[in-house]
Specification:
Elements lengths: L7 H11 L4 H9 L15 H13 L6 E2 L12 H7 L2 H4 L11 H18 L3 E2 L6 H16 L3 E5 L4 H10 L5 E5 L9 H7 L4 E8 L9 H9 L4 E6 L17 E5 L15 E5 L11 E6 L5 E6 L5 H4 L12 H35 L6 E2 L8 E5 L4 H10 L2 E2 L11 E5 L6 H13 L1
Length: about 425
C-alpha cells in the first residue's frame, strides 16, 4: 500500500527477527494450522468474473449453522433500527471522540450510553465505554490498585480464561495474583477466598455468571469480601442483571461487562464493547472518557468531556489509563438497543434466556450431564460421552456450532450457550443431534 513507509527490506528484517522466512509462515503460525488460508492465486479476469470468483470463495464458509457457542461472545439478535441509526453518516463519519471538539450529537450519545449503563448496573457513574469486556476488567484491576495503594488481586479459576490472559498482560511486574477455586456447585469457594484476603489485597474479582455459566451468590459473597476491607470487582452480564443481582445492589466497588450481548453481532470476533461503572467517590480514578451535562453561557443544555487531564495525550505516563478513547459506534449501538427494548424488554430477554438454559439442561439425553449444580444463566457446562472436540465436530456435521471446550474440567467438558435468537425448535434439534451422537 502506497501510504505504508515500510519496504520489502524492512519487512524481511522483521521476519528474520521473529524467526520466520515469509509473511505466510508468520500468519500460519499466528492463525493456527488448518484455519489459515493463504492468499488465493487469482488469475487475470474481468471485474464481473472476479466478483463471481470471490463469491465462490466466500461460499466455502459455513453460514447455515445454528450457533450455540459461547465463552464470551454470543449470537444475539440485532434489531434493524440499531443499524439504521448506527449507519447514519452523522455518526459513522463523525470526528473521533478522542478529541475535545467532538460534535454535540456524539457527546450526547456518549452521555446517554453512560446513563443507561449506570442504571443497568445499579451504580452512580459510567465511562463512555472501553474496548471490550476483557480490557474493561483489566483496567478495573489497575483502578483498584490506584485506589487502595495495594498490588494484590484475587482471581477466581472460574473466570473466563481469555479475560485472565488480558489481565495478566496488563498487570505490572510487581503485582501479585492469587487464585481461588470453585465448589461442586460451580460457585467460588467462599471460605478459601476469605482465607486468602490479607492486608496486601487490593481487590477480589468475581464473574457472575462465571465462565461455566454459573450464577454466583453475590448477596453472600459481596458483604463478606467488603467486610475485610478489600474492593469488590464484579464482571456481569448486562442482560442478566435485570433478573439477577446487579452489582450495585451488593455495593460492588467497580463493575465491568462485555456489551456485545446488547445487540452487537458476532462480527468474526469484534469490534465489541467494554462497560465500566462505579461510584462518584471513585470517578477521578476511572479510566477512559467521561461525558458530563452542562449549560452554556446562554443557559442552553450541552455536553462536554470532563476530567480531561486523565487522558494519555495530556498526562502521558501519569494518566489513569492508556485507553484514551472509546468504542463509540458500538456504544451507540448498545444505547439504541437498550433504549429500544426498555426495562421490560431487557427483562423479558433475560427471562427467556434463562428459560431456554433451564429447558436444555432438564432435557439433556442420557450420557450427558450438567457439570455443576448451581443455577446457570445463558450458558451451561456439560460433560458429554465422548471427547468435547469430537463432539463439537460431530455437531457441526449436523448443523450446530457449540463450545468451546473446557479442558480444565476434563476432555469431555464443553459449553452450550443460549440467546434471544434460539427457538424451542432450535433447542429440540440440538437435543436430538446429541441423542444421535
Amino acid at each position: 500500500m502506497r501510504y505504508l513507509s515500510l519496504g520489502e527490506r524492512d519487512r524481511a528484517e522483521m521476519l528474520r527477527a521473529l524467526g520466520f522466512s515469509s509473511q505466510e509462515e508468520l500468519m500460519r503460525e499466528a492463525v493456527g494450522g488448518e484455519a489459515f488460508m493463504p492468499t488465493p492465486n487469482i488469475p487475470r479476469m474481468s471485474e464481473s468474473e472476479l466478483y463471481a470468483h470471490i463469491l465462490h470463495i466466500a461460499s466455502l464458509n459455513r453460514w447455515d449453522l445454528k450457533v450455540f457457542a459461547g465463552g464470551g461472545a454470543y449470537d444475539v439478535h440485532t434489531p434493524s433500527v440499531v443499524n439504521h441509526v448506527l449507519l447514519r453518516s452523522e455518526f459513522y463519519t463523525a470526528y473521533t471522540p478522542y478529541q475535545p471538539e467532538v460534535s454535540q450529537g456524539t457527546l450526547q450519545a456518549m452521555y446517554e450510553f453512560q446513563s443507561l449503563m449506570a442504571e443497568i448496573a445499579g451504580m452512580e457513574v459510567s465511562n463512555s465505554s472501553m474496548y471490550d469486556g476483557a480490557t474493561a476488567l483489566a483496567e478495573a484491576v489497575l483502578m483498584a490498585f490506584r485506589l487502595k495503594k495495594r498490588y494484590k488481586v484475587i482471581l477466581p479459576r472460574s473466570l473466563n480464561p481469555l479475560y485472565r490472559m488480558v489481565v495478566d498482560t496488563y498487570l505490572p511486574d510487581f503485582a501479585e495474583v492469587d487464585e481461588v477455586g470453585f465448589t461442586p456447585s460451580g460457585e467460588i469457594d467462599l471460605p478459601e477466598l476469605l482465607s486468602k484476603i490479607d492486608d496486601d489485597t487490593a481487590a477480589v474479582v468475581v464473574q457472575s455468571p462465571n465462565h461455566f455459566g454459573v450464577v454466583e451468590n453475590l448477596r453472600t459473597l459481596g458483604p463478606a469480601v467488603k467486610e475485610r476491607g478489600t474492593l469488590l470487582l464484579v464482571h456481569y452480564d448486562p442482560i442478566g442483571a435485570s433478573v439477577l443481582v446487579p452489582p450495585g445492589e451488593v455495593r460492588a466497588d467497580i463493575a465491568t461487562a462485555e456489551g456485545q450481548v446488547l445487540g452487537l453481532p458476532l462480527g468474526f470476533g469484534g469490534p465489541y464493547l467494554g462497560i465500566m461503572t462505579s461510584w462518584k467517590r471513585y470517578i477521578r480514578q476511572m479510566p477512559g472518557r467521561i461525558v458530563a451535562e452542562t449549560t452554556d453561557v446562554d443557559g442552553r443544555r450541552g455536553f462536554v468531556t470532563t476530567l480531561q487531564t486523565r487522558e494519555q495525550h495530556i498526562r502521558r505516563a501519569k494518566a489513569t489509563s492508556n485507553i484514551c478513547t472509546n468504542n463509540q459506534l458500538m456504544a451507540l449501538a448498545a444505547a439504541v438497543y437498550t433504549a429500544l427494548l426498555g426495562r421490560e424488554g431487557i427483562k423479558k430477554n433475560a427471562l427467556t434466556t434463562l428459560a431456554k438454559t433451564v429447558y436444555f439442561t432438564k432435557n439433556l439425553p442420557k450420557g450427558y450431564e450438567v457439570a455443576f449444580s448451581g443455577l446457570s444463566f445463558r450458558e451451561v457446562a456439560v460433560k458429554g460421552p465422548i471427547p468435547s472436540d469430537t463432539l463439537i465436530d460431530a455437531l457441526i456435521d449436523r448443523g450446530f456450532l457449540v463450545g468451546p471446550s473446557l479442558p480444565d474440567l476434563g476432555e469431555n467438558h464443553l459449553l452450550f450457550a443460549f440467546t434471544d435468537k434460539h427457538t424451542r425448535e432450535d433447542i429440540d434439534g440440538l437435543l436430538q443431534a446429541l441423542r444421535e451422537i
